[in-house]
Amino acid sequence: MFTRITSYTLYGVDAIKVDVEVHTARGSPQFNIVGLPDKAISESRERVRAGLINSGYKFPLERITVNLSPADLRKESPAFDLPVAMGILIATGQVKISDLESIAMVGEISLDGTVNRVRGLLSVADQCSKDGIRTLLVPQDNAYEAAVIQKVRVIPITSLGQAIAFLSGNSEVPSVQVDLAEIFSLNG
């Protein structure tokens, strides 16, 4: 099976769209991440594996290939953990999510499935608005940073389980709202 999830990486201060493509197939169990990942992303395999298991899901005993596209762009961040984990669950049929076209997600997953903060959410949300992404799932700990960009619905996520429940329509998570007038009056 195959699935594609939209995510973003930072290049300087700019965010660049990255397609997280997940393919699963029968064969000897392997979990490979390709597309010029750095060490933090290579370590993602262990975080994702433990996060899935400790969230009550099965880590598939299949051949798993994750491609971070475009492949010629170096990716430096654990922010791909959430889309990689979600892609594995969708590709293996453990989770059914119908519409991912206008959704992007970023977040590091801890070993217990908690979604941890990542860098650069203001840039990510800004690029999402330019790319036509309507909903962005982000770690709750720094969701307000992304919510400054008001053209994107920012969903604060605390765990892999909460992200799955939201995306599958089993749970409503209120979006984060920021009052820009209040922010600017405080800095005034």
Let me know the number of strands: 9
Class based on secondary structure composition and strand pairing? alpha/beta
Morphology call: globular
Mean pLDDT: 92
The CATH architecture = 2-Layer Sandwich
Helix amount, in percent? 25-40%
Unreliable stretches covering 5 or more consecutive residues: none
Number of domains: 1
What is the CA-CA span between the terminal residues?
53 Å
- What topology, given as strand order, has the largest sheet? 1-2-4-3
Protein name: Magnesium chelatase family protein
Organism: Candidatus Hakubella thermalkaliphila
Pfam families: ChlI
Topology (SSEs and partners):
Elements: E1 2-11, E2 14-25, E3 30-34, H1 39-42, H2 44-54, E4 63-69, H3 81-91, E5 103-105, E6 108-109, E7 115-116, H4 121-131, E8 135-139, H5 143-147, E9 153-157, H6 160-167, H7 180-186
Parallel strand pairs: 3-4, 5-8, 8-9
Antiparallel strand pairs: 1-2, 2-4, 6-7
Describe what this molecule looks like in 3D.
With about 190 residues, the chain is α/β, with parallel strands linked by helices. The protein has one domain (about 1-185): 2-Layer Sandwich (Ribosomal Protein S5, domain 2). The chain has helices spanning about 40, 45-55, 80-90, 120-130, 145, 160-165, 180-185; strands at about 1-10, 15-25, 30-35, 65-70, 105, 110, 115, 135-140, 155. It has a 4-stranded mixed β-sheet with strand order 1-2-4-3. A 3-stranded parallel β-sheet has the order 5-8-9, sandwiched between helices. The protein has a two-stranded antiparallel ribbon with strand order 6-7. It is globular. The chain starts with a strand and ends with a helix.
